Amino acid sequence: MVHLAAIPHEDEVDDKLVKEVKKIHLQLANDEDCFTTSVYGSRFAAQDLPRHEMPEHEMPKEVAYRMIKDELSLDNNPMLNLASFVTTYMEEEAEKLMAESFSKNFIDYEEYPQSADIQNRCVSMIGRLFHAPVGAEDGGGAVGTSCVGSSEAIMLAVLAMKKRWKKQRIAEGKPADRPNIIMNSAVQVCWEKAARYFEVEEKYVYCTQDRYVIDPEEAVSLVDENTIGICAILGTTYTGEYEDVKAINDLLVEKGLDTPIHVDAASGGFVTPFVIPDLEWDFRLERVVSINVSGHKYGLVYPGVGWVVWRGADFLPQELVFNINYLGADQASFTLNFSKGASQVIGQYYQLIRLGKHGYRAIMSNLTRTANYLSDSLEALGFIIMSKTAGEGLPLVAFRLPPVESDGETEERHYDEFGLAHQLRSRGWVVPAYTMAPNTENLKMLRVVVREDFTRNRCDSLIADIKLSQQVLDKMDKDSIQKHSDFIHRHHTASGKASHNHAKYKKEKHSLQGKTGKTHAIC
Predict the structure, then answer these.
(1) pLDDT tens digits, residue range 86-117?
(2) d(Cα 40, Cα 47) in Å, to the nearest integer?
(3) pTM to 2 decimals?
(4) Residue of 59, 121, 156, 412 with fewest CB within 10 Å of its CB?
(5) What are the residue boundaries of the structural domains of the chain, listed by start?
(6) Architecture of the domain spanning 12-72
C-alpha cells in the first residue's frame, strides 16, 4: 500500500540545528552556490562558455560534460555525412577496448610491450595482404609502421624516395638539387603538401573531360634523371577509379627505367584484396616499393590510424631511421611525430582478428552492391555516372547533372551540382559537390561515399531526397536558388561561418586549388 504524507509547515521544516548549519555554510562561502539538481538550473547555463581565455574557476564535471555535449550536438550527424571515407561505426567491444587504452603512450615500448607487439602484428597482416616479401632474418623482408593517417604515411614515403634518389645521385657524382615526383592532378592535397614541404617539384599528369585517372604512358614519358618516383592511386578521391599500376610498372620495366612506384592505397587498400583479389597493383609488381593505407577508412577504425609498408629495408634509407633509447628501451623510429595513443592501433588489431578475411570480404561486398544499386538508381533518374561499378573502383558514386536539351540545343540549367548539394543539406544529408581536377573544363560533380553503416534502407532514403530536391529546384527560379544556396552556405556550412582563418592565408595561389579552382576533395 502507499502511505499518505502530510505537507509540513515551514516552522516544522526549518529545524533550529539545520538553520544554524546553513548559516555557518553561507557565512563561509564567498561565491554564490553553483550546484543544483539540474545542470540547466545552474549559473553556468545562463553564461557563455569560455571561448578565448581559460576561466579563473572550475565547474562541476557534470556541467562541463553537458555544456560541451550540447554544443557538439550542433555538429552534423556522422551517419548522414556522405562526404567522408572515415569510419563512423565500430562495435561496442572495439570502442571499449580503445577507451581502455586512451592513457597508453604508444611510443613507450618498455612500459607497453604488448601494444607495440600488436602494431607489429598489424604490419605483418597488412603487409601479407599486399603480398609483401617476407624474411626479415636475412634483411630481405618488408618493413612497415603505423602512422596517424595516410597523410603522415605519404610524407614518410616521399622522404624515403627522395633520400634514396639523393644518395644514388651523390654516389654517381651528379647534382641532387632538383628532385621531382610524377602524379595525377586529382591527387589528395597531402601529396601537394609533401612535395612543397620536402622541396620536390610536382610533375602532373592532367585529367581530361573523359579520363579522371593517370595516363600510364604520359606518366612514364615524364620520367627523367631527377624523378624520385611515380605516385599511383588505388581509388582516386573524386571518382574512386583505380589507376592502372600494372601498366605503369610494365612500361617502366619495358623501358629499363628503375623509377620506383608508390601506391597511395589510402582508400582502396582494404577494399581491392577482398573484392577483386586478382588485380595486380601491390608488391607483386617489381617497381612498387612502398604502399600506404588508411586504417580509419575502409580499414574500419575510427580516425586516425594509417599504415605504410616498404618492399624491403633497402627502400627505407637507414639515415632516416633513428635508434633511440627512450623511457628505458632501445627502438628504431621513423615517424613525423612521437608520442601518440595506442587505442587506434588496438582498434585496428581488433577489426583484423574479429572480422578476418571472410568478414572484410562480406562487408566490402555489401558496400559494392549498395554502390552499384545507388549508381543504377541515379542513372535511372537521368544523372551521368562518372564512377566505376562492379568492383572496378571504390564503393562510391560520383555523378553529375545531365545537360538540358531543348529543340535539339543544349541550354544552361538554372541550378548546378552545388545547388543540389545545398538543397540536400537542408534535408540533413552532406553530399559534397566538387569542381574537378584541372583541364576538365571546370567539370562539376557530386560524390556519395558508401561506408559500412550506409545500408540499403538509408540509400533508398537518399534517393528519395535527391528526387524531392530536384523537384523543388525545378520549381524555383535562378534568383531564388541563388538566395537559398547563399543562405545554406552562410548558416548551415562551417566554411560559410568560419571566422578563425587568418586573412593572410586566404585565397592562396600556390596549390592546384588556388591556381585552377579545383576543389580539394574530402577524404
Answers:
(1) 999 999 999 999 999 998 887 777 778 788 88
(2) 11
(3) 0.86
(4) 412
(5) 12-72, 363-516
(6) Irregular (4.10)
